[in-house]
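Can anyone check this?
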Amino acid sequence: MILRELGRWEKGGATRSEMARTLATEADLLLFVVDNDLRQSEWYPLRNLAEMGKRSLLIFNKTDLYTEADKNQILNQLKQRVGGFISSEDVIAIAANPQLINLENGDTFKPEPDLMPLIHKIATILRAEGEELIADNILLQSQRLGEEARRLIDNQRLRQAEKIVDRYQWIGAGAIAVTPLPVVDLLATAAVNAQMVVEIGKIYGCELNMDRGRELALSLAKTLGSLGIVKGAIQLVATALHFHIGTIVVGKAIQGITAAYLTRIAGRSFIEYFRQNQDWGDGGITEVVARQFQLNRRDEFVRGFIQDAIARVIEPLNLHQSSAESDDELELELDKPSDIAPYLYQDSSQNDWENPRHPPDNW
């Protein structure tokens, strides 16, 4: 049994609301205690807890503070407000701890608590519904345990899947940085690894062969291209690198880091796909991929990602030495080369982005 005054939970926010639900789950019979008409902040948690399926009583306490007419008026108001989820017979008026009464002779009188209506009601419920209440409680607690188990499993799967994405994004980055692609349009296809798709699916209990993995990978790679995310990622990476290292960054490094970024977007999209039982949802693959791109454009994430990229890609390439060798730089084919050139060739000695240092003619 749970006995709580709803007023205590009013200012508790989400934490107290969750605590109330936990206590309610463990109870066989819920008693909601108020001392006046229900406020809106009390009505909502009362309704939510009652609709969990638990047997519930609404207790109107401190009736000794009201006249008989006021008491009946409040009692009727309570019955009307909760009529959709608590029977009028289960709204009980009591006086658990009546206040002292001052007598004319100066003495005080302490009335006896008026709890008999509640005691009789509980006794009636237990006689008629006792075994059913216990059975319902066991069922509800079992459901709660099932929900917690599913939540734990989902969190564990998510951590494992994220490790797979992290591994493949830096494997791909290293490979492309060493052997860059001739055109950026190939980045999406190179970034979405079919083996990664198969391994993520396996985490979520979906056994895919490599043909199915390639099919899914190709579909997502096309989506990355059609949404303009490839070129958007290149610009984001190039800009972020400029602010972090402020020097010339060769094209192959930008390609490698962009590939890692695209792999992350693809991987996180596939995690969402498999978490939903191989369903892209109402908005389809386009909405999922676009949402992941927006999530991974946040400044906090980009800063951490670029720091990892510098350590995992740029430093191994020793760009501070290769920056003087212009023949090592790779041209990135964009519809508008001027959109990305300032980020690729910015000299650390210059702060004027309007005058980037252009590569030599034989670049």
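Reply from J.R.: I decoded it. The chain is about 60% helix and 5% strand.
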